[in-house]
Every structure is written in C-alpha cells, then in structure tokens.
Amino acid sequence: MTKNKTPDQLRSARWFAPDDLRAFGHRSRAMQMGYAPEEWRDRPVIAIINTWSDAQPCHMHFKSRVDDVKRGVLMAGGFPMELPALSLSESLLKPTTMLYRNMLAMDAEELLRGHPVDGVVLMGGCDKTTPALLLGATSMNLPAIYLPAGPMLRGNWKGRTLGSGSDAWKYWDERRAGKISDKDWVDMEAGIARSYGTCMTMGTASTMTAIAESIGMTLPGASSIPAADANHIRMSSEAGRRIVEMVWEDLTPQKIQTRQAFENAITVAMAMGCSTNAIIHLIAQARRAGQDISLDDFETASRKVPVIANVRPSGDRYLMEDFFYAGGLPGLMSRIKDHLHLGCMTASGKTLGENIADAEVYNDDVIRDVANPIYKEGALAVLKGNLAPDGCVIKPSACDPRFLKHTGPALVFDDYPSMKKAVDDPDLDVTADHVLILRNAGPQGGPGMPEWGMLPIPTKLVKQGVRDMVRLSDARMSGTSYGACILHVSPESFIGGPLSLVRNGDRITIDVAARTINLDVPEAELAKRRAAWRAPERRFERGYGWMFSRHIKQANEGCDFDFLETGFGKPVGEPSIY
C-alpha cells in the first residue's frame, strides 16, 4: 500500500483535530459514546452506509454483516461509523422503489458530506440500492467500496428448482389456467425464497451488483457470493480492511469510474443476460461520474457480445448459486476479456486484468464459451422509430423468437386498473397477435416508472395455451421477468410522447434485427391526434412527489434528477465547521 495522505490531511481531522471549541464538542460527544481518543486520532473514519431494515428481506443479514465490516475496519487501523440509510425494499415498498432511488442517492451523498468521514463501505444489493448508493458516493467522491448483499439460495418446491420472479410469473399463469391448487400455491410461496439475500435469478439485483464489480467498485468476485455462504462474511471483513487502505491511497470513485470502466460494465451486462433496468441505472451513474454514456453504447455492445451466462430468465436452467460455483463473475469476464479494457483500475488497487488473471470456469454449461452462447447477441436491444424516437428496450434473449419481427394490432390501456380488469374478461376481443399497450406508466406517469411492463397475458389466451405476446409500455419490468416486452418507451406518453397517440386497432411493426419500432399510421393522422392531445392531471400537488415530477429525467437519460447530475451547477464544497 502506498500512502498518499498523512493523518493531518484526513477529512475527519477537520472535525477532531483542531484545538477549538467546536472540535472539543466533537471529541467530547465521541467520548460520550464510550470511545477513547486513541480510537479515532490519526485514523481514517470509515462510514458504513447500511440499508438494513425490518421491511427489507434482501438485507436481513446486514444487521450482523455490519459487525463483520467493522471488524475489518478495526483490523486495518480505521474507525468505523455505521450510518443507516433508506432501505428501498423491492418487494414491499410501493408504488415502486424507482420513485425513491434518487432519494436514497441524496441520502447517501448528504450523509457522507455532513459527517466526519474519510471513506465509505456501501452496503446494498436489492435492486435500487446498488445504483442509488453508487450515485450518491460518486457525487461525493470519497474513497468508496461496494458490499453486495449476495443472492439468496435456490428456491425449491416439490423437488423443482424455483427462481425468484421468473417462476412466480410462470406458475401464476398456470394457476390462472386452473392447474395449481390453493395448497400448492402456499407451498410454493414458502419454497421460492428460502434465505436472506437478493433474487437468485439474473434479475436487477444480481445485474447491478455485477455491474458494480465490473466497473471496479467491489472486491474481485464479491458480487457472485451467495448471501448465506461463509465466503460472504469473509468478503465483508475484507471490504472493511480494504477501504482503510483506499483512504490512505486516495483511491476515489472518479479515479475508478472512467468511460472505459462503464464500457466494461455494459459489455459484462450483455454477456450476463442482464436486466433491462441496467440501462437506466448505468446511464445515470455514468453521468454522475462525468462520462457520456448513452443508449448507443448499449446498442454497440449488443451487436458484438453474446449472452454466455446460462442463468434464468435468459437461460433455461441455472440460478446465481450455480453461477458462483461455476466461477462467478471473474470466470465470466475471463471468457470475454477480448472485449474488456483490462487496464482499468479497481477498488482492489489492482487493474481488472490483474483481478481476473487467474479466473477459471468450472462448468461450461453455466458459463458458456463465446463460441457456444445461449444467445448470439447481447441480452438487450435498443429499438427506435416513430413510436419511440428517443428509444425503447427489449430483452430478445428472454422472449419467443417469433416476436422478434412482428406486426399486429394495438390494444391500448391508459392505466393499470383498466388493463387488469380487461385481461380477466373472457369476452375480451384479443388474439395472440395483438400488441398489448399500457401507457401513462413512465417516470412521471407511473409515477416513478413502476415494474408493470410485463403485462399479464389475457386469461382467455392463457387458457388457450398462449404464454407470450408482444407487450409495449413506457414502464419498466422486473429483471426476473421475461417475454416479448418492449419497455422504457421515450419520451413517455404522460408528457405527450408518440405512445399517447396510439388507438385500438392501429398496426405496430417491430423488427429487432433492424432495431426499429413503428406505428403504421400516416403522419397527417398523427398530427391531428397530436393537436387534440391534452396533458393528464399532474400526479402530485405537494411533497417529495411534487419535487420528483418537476425534476425527473426521461428513461433514455437515466431518470436522475436534473439538479443531481454532475453538469448542474458548481461542485458542492465541504461543510462549514464553526
């Protein structure tokens, strides 16, 4: 370790070192908590931002893992300080955690700015916690390391392996078709989530923690370790030790998060069969780091990097526990290293190339070779056309191939309740060739762009054996979801985007190979509809939602608040201490 700082240069020294009245107060209050001056004097103060809560099943183990982090910090000569933060439970927080991602980002940034800390361990994992914590830490730019919660154990029901989300959607259709009893349904509820940790499919949680690792913000291999594995405890302690070294080295997010680091993250995401949500979060984080990443970068990677992680929902059999045993993310990156910038610095203090130099793959079916992928292109495709001039997203690796080129009539719903009622109508005039459309579900319309994009297939069609059809919205969908779902239509319908002009029966044409999506209606007719369109009523009249609706950006721009992006105004200085 090379020390680039001396104790008097530590940020926390501004609080504790001076011989003045304010520093007297800081020291005396630390002693009030039972700490002796020897415990903090000339030592880095390490914040541990902990997103544990009683409403967060993914982070149940953080209540004890924080002690493992503290153990590591103390071993390395640091002074740990736990700072609880907003938890954002994907399963329980409504209407959507995406409404509050930026709130947690602000929470993290201001916790770090206002407290006497020199570096930070970020404890997250559930979908929005990873991007939110990284957004805040990137803006604050103190030495930071991310500690992923890790995926839960495989689900099990009647000897069948169950995957979070993916199997819930699958078996819900079977229940709607009358093939699953009440008792079996309760047994499945008890068997699909058997331990603490995040979804064990390649959903948004595993996608985003793997992205954090591929950018360089975790310890090597950290994102693949199951939450219940003893390796996770050891990794937590190691993260505590490493952040102390990072403070002395002055290794900050800005030095790690280069444009090439984000290109690595996009490449890895494509090879993993990533969640569609990766696009929104990566664009937002790149902008916080001052890097110009756009939908075009995802499209470029999609054309050259195949999906090689055979993990549901893109894969057909395996889950994250299998992925870990097969070599985890280092193993996967070793197989696509020709597409990676191996010289990028990481939180380990070593380059990405050094981190994966000895990585191996132990199961060639779980982590395929690039010559034998599960899908020949990347997991995501960006479509553009007159229906989505700023782009929309599909996950072709997880949908019925027959819908990759499709023309069908629109069946339009303006809100979720009316759509939900209609799909259960046995007399609904719908076929498997229809394009189901849900609008007013975007960043402002949702509000917060909920995960409503995997629209339920009408019960009438489910009973006929239909299990996929084209669904189109300005919403998001869970990373555990699958099917021919086209999402993130930009600009959204709530602000007058072209999706707001579609009428029942209009023909819509999708061509994934050509990356196009178009509404087959003459421009003159669209101009008439546009002139007649009236904006819906605003969703909020006060509070956080009022602020959200006035500052949220569109999906293709990362859904950050405009005033939080790096280019908005001068950098914020250190707080005054008087």
Mind explaining what this structure looks like?
- This protein is of the alpha/beta class and 578 residues long.
- It contains 21 helices and 14 strands.
- The protein has helices spanning 13-16, 21-32, 37-40, 62-75, 101-114, 129-140, 166-176, 182-191, 204-215, 230-249, 253-256, 259-272, 277-288, 295-304, 320-325, 328-335, 352-355, 416-423, 459-462, 523-532, 543-551; strands at 45-50, 79-84, 119-124, 144-148, 155-157, 160-162, 381-385, 388-394, 405-413, 435-438, 470-473, 485-487, 507-511, 516-519.
- Helix 6 (129-140) links the parallel strand 3 (119-124) and strand 4 (144-148).
- The longest helix has 20 residues, at 230-249.
- The radius of gyration is 24 Å and the shape is globular.
- The model has no long low-confidence stretch (mean pLDDT 96).
The CATH H-level superfamily of the largest domain is Response regulator
Q: What kind of sheet is the major sheet?
A: 8 strands, mixed
Rg measurement, Å: 24 Å
Helix- and strand-based class?
alpha/beta
How many strand units? 14
Strand content: 5-15%
Characterize the quaternary organization of these chains: single chain
What's the overall average pLDDT, rounded?
Answer: 96
User: Ends: how far apart?
Assistant: 35 Å
CATH architecture of the largest domain: 3-Layer(aba) Sandwich
Strand order of the biggest β-sheet: 7-8-12-11-10-9-13-14
Low-confidence stretches: none
EC number: 4.2.1.9
Keywords: Iron, Iron-sulfur, Lyase, Metal-binding
Family: Belongs to the IlvD/Edd family.
InterPro entries: Dihydro-acid_dehy_C, DiOHA_6PGluconate_deHydtase_CS, ILV_EDD_C, ILV_EDD_N, IlvD/EDD_N, Sugar_Degrad_Dehydratases
